[in-house]
Amino acid sequence: MIDVKDIRDKGAKDLEKMLDDLLEEQMKLRLQFVTGQVTNSSHFKRIRKDIARLKTVLSEQANDNR
Questions:
Q1: Would you say 58 and 13 are in contact if contact means Cβ atoms under 8 Å apart?
Q2: Could you give the angle at the alpha carbon of 46 between the alpha carbons of 65 and 4, nearest 5°?
Q3: What's the predicted TM-score (pTM) here?
Q4: In whole angstroms, what is the distance from residue 40 CA to residue 17 CA?
Q5: 31 Cβ contact list (under 8 Å, min separation 6)
Q6: What is the pLDDT of residue 4?
Q7: Which CATH number applies to 4-64?
């Protein structure tokens, strides 16, 4: 789980890279789920929430820059 305080301290480029990494990890988990290789399904929920946190902070930073 990513801490929101750590996210807010990072720049937009770092957050976008983290978001890309999480989306890629989510895609890999989906493929593993389809093929029956997932051993811990709680990762889906954790990654989905981390993606939401990142998107929220990115939108907050975009609104602050206006």
A1: no
A2: 35
A3: 0.88
A4: 25
A5: none
A6: 86
A7: 1.10.287.310
User: Tokens representing 17?
Assistant: 């890279």
**Residue 65 predicted with pLDDT over 80:** no
The structure tokens 């929920």 sit at 45
Handedness of CA 29, 30, 31, 36 (dihedral sign): positive
The residue extents of the domains of the chain are 4-64
Residue 27: exposed, middle, or buried by beta-carbon count in 10 A (0-12, 13-18, 19+)?
A: exposed
Residue 38 backbone dihedrals phi, psi, to 5 degrees = -75, 130
Q: Which amino acid is present at 24?
A: E
Chain segment 1-47, per-residue pLDDT in tens:
788 889 989 988 999 999 999 999 999 999 999 999 988 889 999 99
